[in-house]
Amino acid sequence: MAGVDEPVVIGAFDEFLETRGHAEKEFFKMLDAELNKIDTFYTEQRQIQLDTMSKIKQQIAMQRQERNSLEAALTTEPVVLRFLHSAPVSPSTMIRKKVLRDAMLEFYRGLLLLRNYQRSRWSAMRP
């Protein structure tokens, strides 16, 4: 439905521009260029967030797989050995968890900024 109405709106805007002077035409061209910059920035930032989300999902899947393989190895041992081996957590695992947690927090902050940017963009463009 919007695709059908769009050429009429563009045609009406072109007709509107034809009735304006050169300075007003340049002003509207400048506004259109600025709007394109805003849309491009938003699209780029959205794609960066989607890529980041994909990477974080991969890291979480790797952590789960590592944990599951460790748990599977520990369940084959006798109960006493299982208790002794499961108590300590390796420093590298703790570091990876911290890095992943920090990445998730940074991702969340980025999503909040992007959402706020989108809201301000929509409120600024609202007639």
UniProtKB/TrEMBL annotation:
- Ranges for domain SPX come to 1-127
Highest taxon listed in the record's lineage: Eukaryota
User: What's a Pfam family this protein contains?
Assistant: SPX
- Name this polypeptide is given: SPX domain-containing protein
Protein species of origin: Allomyces macrogynus (strain ATCC 38327)
Taxonomic placement: Eukaryota, Fungi, Fungi incertae sedis, Blastocladiomycota, Blastocladiomycetes
